Amino acid sequence: MPSQGSRSGFFWHTGRRKGCTVAGLLALGLGSFACASTLWDVEALPIDRAERQALAGLDGQRLGDSTPYVFATLGDAVFFLCRWPSSEKIPLVLPGVSDPALAEAIEAAVDSVEKMLPIEFDRREHLGEGGIEIRRLEPGEPGVSGVANTVANCRLDPKVGDEGPRVDARLVDASIWLRVRAFDVAGRISTHSPAEVAGSLFHELGHALGFQGHVRLGRSVMVRSVDHVRRIGRRLLEGKTVDAPSLKALYAVPSGTVVARRQVGDEATRWFDAMSALVLRKRLRGPMIRVGDHVARVNWMDANGGSYPVFLHDVAAVMEGSRGFELDPARRTRALVARAGEPPDLN
Ligand SMILES: [Zn+2]
User: Fold this and answer.
1) The dihedral of CA 142, 145, 147, 149: what is its sign?
2) pTM above 0.90, yes or no
3) What is the pLDDT of residues 143-197, one digit of tens each?
4) Domain 90-155+171-250: CATH superfamily, name plus number
5) 12 C-alpha vs ligand 1 centroid, how far in Å?
6) What's the pLDDT tens digit per position in 303-314?
7) Taking the domains of the chain in order of start, what are their residue ranges?
8) Residues 6+ away with beta carbon under 8 Å from 98
9) How far away, in angstroms, is 203 Cα from ligand 1 center?
10) Distance of CA 148 from the midpoint of ligand 1 (Å)
11) Residue 340 Cα, ligand 1 centroid: separation in angstroms?
12) How far away, in angstroms, is 214 Cα from ligand 1 center?
């Protein structure tokens, strides 16, 4: 349960318009309600003048609609942006596709993203340590309901208690599952059109590059609309430029830039603190953080590849203060903490 002090410790400011809160959007159903202001205020980011000018030059960017990454220690929560460093090439593995039209669609999406952002891919046959892998799912293979899905892991050096403008965080690996063929309603195998594949992959690359959640308004590549994504795919295949100002905005500010800090009380962060205390004792790696539209998954791994995740639901609502900071550890995470007796009163 969140501590009594969590509301009073809330010191996140936004220029959000009245009646356009996260709670209001949830009540009305996200996506069916067009709201001019964003989830959080990009103007309030702790960035320097050059970065601010770069953001100001990006017409229509809605970086403020992205779900930030989150961590907390000893009662202090921090919400931050996470992306790949521009200084290193990003290893990238493409899926094997025999159909030349689909292979062309995949290349069109990858090339377009690479040209638009200050990043460079290092195309490889296999990933070594870290990078982005685009995997192909066969019809009937579980894992993705639509055309594609993505997870992107952010590695954090968890010294978040200070008041600096950035935390030490960067993306280290991402996986995109792409379905180029699926069963149709009659149970026959149908192949997604090259435009669907190109548009979907462009969108998923946005997630793999650190933009989590979706843009709620306008014609961004990061909207949830399948029709819009297909239109973007057609443009890509026609060789036209596709702009994605919200992705550019993410790459105009440093990785780890703090979106908000909140004091949530020592009680609220106990599961994170317990796992942090076990990092040395149990030789764990982490935290590695994933976020989606709503849920954050903060994970630690042991030497055998075992995962010990702790979840935080409704990240945006928690950041806004309309929902308490309530951590939800997986069963095996509870068991590890219980076995280690760290701290003894948690269970
Ligand atoms: Zn998406």
Assistant:
1) negative
2) no
3) 766 778 899 999 998 775 567 899 999 999 999 999 888 787 888 888 889 999 9
4) Collagenase (Catalytic Domain) (3.40.390.10)
5) 26
6) 999 999 999 999
7) 90-155+171-250
8) none
9) 6
10) 9
11) 38
12) 6
